[in-house]
Amino acid sequence: MTGSPAHVPVLLDEVVRALAIAPGESHVDGTFGAGGYSKAILGAGAARVFAFDRDPEAIAAGDELAATEERLSLVPERFSQMRPALADRGVELVDGVVLDIGVSSMQLDQAERGFSFQADGPLDMRMSGEGESAADFVNRADEGEIAAVLHSYGEEPKARRIARAIVAARPLARTGELAAVVRKAAGHHAGMKKDPATRTFQALRIRINDELGELEGGLAAAERVLAPGGRLAVVTFHSLEDRIVKRFLRSRSGDAPAGSRHRPAANEAGPAPTFEAVAKPVRAGEAELAANPRARSATLRSARRTAAPPQISRAEGMTR
Questions:
Q1: What is the pLDDT of residue 8?
Q2: Sign (positive/negative) of CA torsion 34, 282, 226, 83?
């Protein structure tokens, strides 16, 4: 970690409290990044931390820390794969899981990764460096598919207009080129509070990295690897992510919405709750916001695992 505000993990103290770390425990840091959460968890007394990251650059940057800290195991894998990855290491259950969702500040800071519209670089956006890049997508997808991505993952009200402009401007290879196209199509002018390119870049990044699908898979995986009494802490940065976490915890804690005359509640009892003690969402205080602007949109949700068997996730149900 560099110590700059851009590299400070958000809600760090709150996450450590939610994990309620006890000496001798094993925890999963699903998003290693610059190692902030992992170091705090180890510092709080955890016996082992299994730190996951799909980004090979993050894993490589953590090698020095792992070489000097035998309690830290780096896992170059998506956090949705934590169950088989832990099993490969002889671990079935852990006492805590933390997930910090979305792009890391280190990825944003590197123009060559193509995540940011604030500095020109290759239009890439791949966290793992594998698969279809953002340039590949915008240059091969039709207008309707691009518009659907911008609307669904960026909540962009001018999705169709921007998609049409992207198609007309192809081929696009640089972040600066794409940002210019989006700003022109969206009617950018001086004094706007938010750069019009923000939603488009968010939407493409989520699509390229399947971030929402990965989040759903990660929550289901955490449910399976957490021991009874184990703690889950998830930090999200926008409403699309937070809704998934909120819906998951509500479903798994048995806190389903009440029925109505249009849709009566089911009479039969559902599966036993797999999570309890679901905490109220936590957001950064004024001191952290002043020191770390990235915390402005962060929300922490946490809960404790019960002894009930894990429920079948939607993805698992489709394969049975």
A1: 72
A2: negative
Rounded Cα gap, residues 116 and 232, in angstroms: 30
Domain of 28: which CATH number?
3.40.50.150
Q: Are residues 121 and 202 in the same domain?
A: yes
- The DSSP string of 123-170 is S---SSS-S--HHHHHHHS-HHHHHHHHHHHH--TTHHHHHHHHHHH-
Residues pairing with 276 in the sheet: 304
Q: How far apart are CA 33 and CA 101, in angstroms?
A: 11
Give the up-direction half-sphere exposure of residue 302: CA atoms within 13 A in the CB hemisphere.
21
**DSSP letter, residue 235:** E
Q: Which amino acid is at 282?
A: V
Between CA 70 and CA 115, with CA 11 as vertex, the angle to 5 degrees is: 85
DSSP lists the bridge partners of residue 74 as: 51
Q: What's the token pair of residue 62?
A: 């953590």
pLDDT for 114 equals: 83
Do residues 219 and 314 both lie within one domain? yes
Provide long-range contacts, Cβ within 8 A and 24+ apart, for 137-145. Answer: 137/204, 137/207, 137/208, 138/166, 138/170, 138/172, 138/178, 138/204, 139/170, 139/171, 139/172, 142/167, 143/167
C-alpha pair distances (Å), 65 with each of 29, 42, 69, 265, 283: 14, 12, 6, 52, 29
Distance, CA of 134 to CA of 46 (rounded, Å):
39
Same domain, 162 and 290: no
User: For 200-242, how does the pLDDT look when each residue is reduced to its tens digit (9 = 90+)?
Assistant: 999 999 999 999 999 999 999 999 999 999 999 999 999 999 9
Partners of 52 in the beta sheet?
75
